[in-house]
Design goal:
The structure holds two protein chains of two kinds.
Chain A: H1 2-24, H2 29-50, H3 53-61, H4 63-77, E1 82-86, E2 103-109, E3 115-121
Antiparallel strand pairs in A: 1-3, 2-3
Chain B: H1 2-27, H2 47-75, H3 77-86, H4 89-94, H5 96-114, H6 116-119, E1 121-122, E2 137-141, E3 147-153, E4 158-160, E5 165-170, E6 173-180, E7 182-184, E8 188-201, E9 206-222, E10 230-236, E11 244-256, E12 259-267, E13 269-276, E14 280-287, E15 299-304, E16 307-311, H7 319-322, E17 323-324, E18 327-329, E19 337-341, E20 355-364, E21 367-381, H8 392-398, E22 401-405
Parallel strand pairs in B: 6-12
Antiparallel strand pairs in B: 1-8, 2-3, 3-8, 4-7, 5-6, 5-20, 8-9, 9-10, 10-14, 11-12, 11-15, 13-14, 15-16, 17-18, 18-21, 19-21, 19-22, 20-21
Helix pairs in contact in B: 2-5
Classes of the chains: A alpha+beta, B alpha+beta.
């Protein structure tokens, strides 16, 4: 039965090594746990921005001012965050994350019927 | 025994490794690195945030739909009001103001479609209404669960901005009109939206989430104004969520390079707040820097919570008093009198005896409509004396001439 013990111990060590590697890797759950709070806040901010009548009406009438204000508010959640409002390219909002840490893009509609993308990056 | 132990051990190892890999891939999936649900901040199980985002946008759908409804009705009012007066609801419902509003409702619903993946939503799109009955209440329904309902009483209220063929008659003088604008508002308007939706936010395990938003506005011109100007009384159904902004459109007729323009210009105004409660407000509007008499056929355009509302001064136009002998006169009222004929009528006298009248020809679905606009102090003349005896509107209708406004 000695081989059973060997097998169990070696598999335990293998899993432990994998878990420890993952714990320290940049994409790991543990590292994200710290970031997750801010990212959750940022993504919620993006959703609220894209669904807020106040923001969309202001964007319609004063594009630059609205984007500037949104950027200022995003930076109060995460200092490196930025907000872009763009036209969709070829009918779709940019989907590939172009920021190293965080990126969310949501499609929304201005009061005149134009579709725009609200992109929050960090 | 030995084989079973080996199998079990191998299974435990496989499960541990795959669990780590699955957790990793879930955690790093888009949007963001927090997985799909992070879009609502839902790791905290705070469902109210998701509902808040959805209701907020639903409010927006109602608001932009209503804005488009009032503005489009205003823009295409003259043809629409003709069909309405003649009693052709099907034609009225096919007219541009309904089609354009339906387009906007669909466009605004694209938020739910385009973000279906990132928000984890399932939602159905409302369909445009069948052209039946009156389109003054527009109701867009999904298969069974999504409803966007727009309701405006006091329609049509509005303007016709560009007219292909118009002529102005004044004391025997006939001139081509280059550009013509007309606003046909009432002195009170009530409008509302109700947007209701049942949706599945599947990743939250929220199935059949029912969200409804509604908002009512009513506005009327009040003649009993303490400050001496024109008062506008506004009531809304939700407290403190609105502001009001006012413009006064003043009738302006001018000739430029030999061409006649009949337009509106913005008048300078003083706006005072007379009374304010959490659900209502009274504003007093006074023309600024020009005497009272300079405002002609003026229209008050109020923006309440971004929704444009057209209001006319509360002028009591009496058809009986306007029709004397064989003449129909606009006795100094601040609204124009508008008549329409859909076929050729032979009760109108020669245009040389008209005063301050604009004739507009309009082609709709190969049907020619002619509108006669009698401006302030203008008159139109009939070739028969018995139009004015009895019910003037009915007499005109019997002869193919419809009283459109006011």
């Amino acid at each position: 039965m000695r081989w059973v013990v060997e097998l169990a111990v070696s598999s335990f060590i293998l899993v432990l090594v994998l878990a420890l590697y993952n714990y320290a890797a940049p994409g790991s759950l543990a590292v994200q746990a710290g970031e997750r709070g801010r990212f959750a806040e940022l993504s919620l901010f993006a959703v609220r921005l894209a669904s807020s009548p106040e923001f969309l009406f202001r964007l319609w009438q004063d594009w630059d001012g609205a984007v500037q204000q949104a950027n200022a508010e995003a930076k109060s959640i995460e200092p490196l965050a930025s907000v872009n409002v763009t036209r969709p390219a070829e009918g779709a909002c940019p989907s590939s994350p172009q920021a190293p840490r965080f990126s969310i893009s949501l499609a929304t509609v201005l009061p005149n019927g134009t579709t725009v993308c609200v992109v929050v990056r960090a | 025994m030995r084989g079973q132990v080996i199998l079990l051990t191998a299974l435990i190892i496989a499960m541990a490794v795959s669990a780590v890999l699955i957790l990793q891939s879930v955690a790093t999936s888009a949007p963001g690195f927090g997985g799909v649900r992070a879009a609502y901040g839902v790791f905290s199980r705070d469902v109210s945030k998701a509902v808040e985002a959805i209701t907020s946008y639903l409010d927006y759908v109602g608001a932009v739909s209503l804005i488009n409804f009032t503005e489009n009705t205003a823009l295409y009012a003259l043809p629409a009001v003709g069909f309405d007066v003649k009693g052709e609801p099907v034609e009225y419902c096919k007219w541009l103001h309904v089609n354009k509003t339906a387009d906007m409702v669909n466009a605004s619903m694209m938020f739910f479609v385009a973000n279906r993946a990132s928000l984890g939503l399932s939602v159905e799109l409302p369909q445009r209404p069948q052209p039946a009955g009156s389109c003054k209440t527009l109701e867009f329904k999904g298969v069974d669960r999504t409803i966007v309902r727009l309701n405006v009483t006091g329609l049509p209220n509005g303007t016709l901005l560009v007219t292909p063929q118009a002529e102005n008659y004044d004391n025997g003088l006939k001139r081509q009109v280059e550009q013509f604008s007309l606003v046909l508002p009432k002195s009170s308007v009530a409008l509302s939206y109700r947007a209701s939706m049942v949706m599945d936010v599947s990743l939250l395990a929220l199935a059949g989430l029912n969200v409804t938003r509604e908002f009512n506005v009513s506005a009327r011109v009040d003649v009993n104004c303490p400050a001496g100007g024109v008062c506008v009384n506004i009531t809304v159904s939700r407290p403190y969520m609105w502001t009001a902004k006012f413009e006064v459109l003043n009738r302006t007729i001018y000739i430029e390079e030999g061409r006649l323009y009949i337009n509106y210009t913005l008048a300078g105004i003083d706006v005072d707040l007379v009374d304010y409660t959490e659900y209502s407000a009274v504003y007093s509007i006074k023309p600024e820097g020009l005497p009272e008499g300079r405002l002609v056929e003026y229209v008050i355009k109020a923006y309440v919570a971004n929704i444009p509302i057209y209001l006319a001064p509360a002028a009591a136009v009496n058809p009986q008093a306007a029709c004397q002998g064989s003449e129909l006169r606009n006795n100094g009222w601040d609204v124009p009198i508008v008549l329409a004929n859909f076929t050729k009528v032979n009760i109108l006298d020669s245009s040389t005896s008209y005063r301050n009248v604009t004739k507009i020809n309009y082609n709709i679905y190969n049907q020619e409509v002619t509108y006669w606009v009698i401006h302030r102090n203008g008159k139109i003349v009939f070739n028969s004396n018995n139009v004015c005896s009895g019910d003037v509107k009915q007499n005109l209708r019997n002869r193919g001439l419809y009283w459109v406004y006011p």
